[in-house]
Give the backbone structure.
Amino acid sequence: MITKKSLLIFFLGMLILIGCETLKTSRPIMPVKEYEKLLVGRLDANYVGEDNCLKTCHTHDKKRDDLAASTMGAQLSKKSGMPLVDCESCHGPGSLAIEGLTEEKVKEDLENGKETACNYKALIDLKNLPAPALSLMCLKCHSANATFNLHNWNANVHAINDVSCSDCHEIHKGPDLIVSPKDTAEMCYKCHQEVRAEFYLPSHHPVAEHKVFCTDCHDSHGGILTESLLRMSTVKEQCTQCHVEKEGPFVFEHAESAENCSTCHAHHGSVNNNLLIAREPFLCLQCHEGHKISGISSEERKAVYYTRCTDCHSQIHGTDIPSASGKGIFTQ
């Protein structure tokens, strides 16, 4: 016999299942047909070729020259035999944009000191495209390029937070579309203001001095192993790319440093020496009890609690040499 309690439990279970399904279901940001229009441009326009687009409009002469000098521009060259990219690859079919723009009109505008402009509204509205769609314009070609680690792009924190390719890369900038290491910090600071402040703390990695760069540790294009986009699979593995002497393995290892350097050290900067997250001995006392030292006076013993632990335990990351007691207490 079905009781009211059984029915209530059944309906509650169904509600939970429906709720979970709702959370798990992938939903497009807009109807699929509308999304396709964003990416392909006007469906009533035709592709007319780069030369037809640009010969009627002198507004884009500099952009054309800059793009021609880039890697993508080299693929446009008739000499390359690889016409993979042209204006319409990103901006959509251009027949409606240049409709009515004849050579006579261009000549007349020049004589009157005017620049002939195309109908931008007939092209893809790149400035107002959602970030995922804007990145997809680039991924059509670049996801298959082994030079870039873009196969992880959709799973990384930048894509999830609606950062698009063009937020970092200026397509018409010139020959080199890759951001140089010395310019990466200013680019990253546009979003990561708190990190910028950390690099100006008394103890910091020398990013501001251009001796270390953001891309030395982070892969901005992706990687799904770590949330912070580290190039290596663990924090310690990343840190020991530079700090090799701390890598080990040692006979006597500090357990925490064998797993995660950030247990004791701040990544970017700190008010404490050696990027420590707290000053000694207070950092060490978070895990270890204070201990007495024999052979010293009571006054001196009090002072021990206010000295640095590493004054005695100097090999704090690890050592192969036991202490005088035979125990590995990192004193040598």
